[in-house]
């Protein structure tokens, strides 16, 4: 019989957990916070003390290595789709499409 938690499942577990934390970039005052369970991304939100702003991202899709969110900022009217991908344990690559196009690297906050 197959064990309930295979090694493949525990690999996924480790990958999703790696996204968890607070992430920053030097081009923005926003901090991106990612909350992950053992096997899934649960919440993604961005906040800025500089702008007194909080933005919740809606999770559209996730697989073993990436997840995709949709985000709307009422301050500037921007609606974007963001694809998150781990570059390494301290860096996430974010590919933006929609009202903003570009690639931003986020670094894990100490």
User: What's the total number of strands?
Assistant: 8
The spatial strand order of the largest sheet comes to 1-2-3-4-5-6-7-8
Q: What does the overall shape look like?
A: globular
> What is the SS-derived class?
mainly beta
- Reading the helices and strands in chain order gives HEEEEEEEE
Q: First CA to last CA: what distance?
A: 43 Å
Q: What is the helix fraction of residues, given as a range?
A: 10-25%
Beta-strand proportion:
over 45%
Number of helices: 1
Poorly predicted ranges:
none
Largest sheet: 8 strands, antiparallel, barrel
**For the residues shown, what is the average pLDDT?**
89
Question: Taking Cα atoms only, what radius of gyration do you get, to the nearest Å?
Answer: 15 Å
Briefly characterize the structure:
By secondary structure, this protein is mainly beta. It has one helix and eight strands. The protein is 11% helix and 56% strand.
Description:
- With 110 residues, the protein is mostly beta strands.
- 11% of the residues lie in helices and 56% in strands.
- The chain is built from one helix and eight strands.
- The protein has one helix spanning 7-18; strands at residues 21-24, 31-36, 41-48, 53-62, 66-73, 78-88, 91-98, 102-108.
- An eight-stranded antiparallel barrel has the order 1-2-3-4-5-6-7-8.
- The longest helix is centred in the N-terminal third of the chain and has 12 residues, at 7-18.
- 16% of the residues are buried.
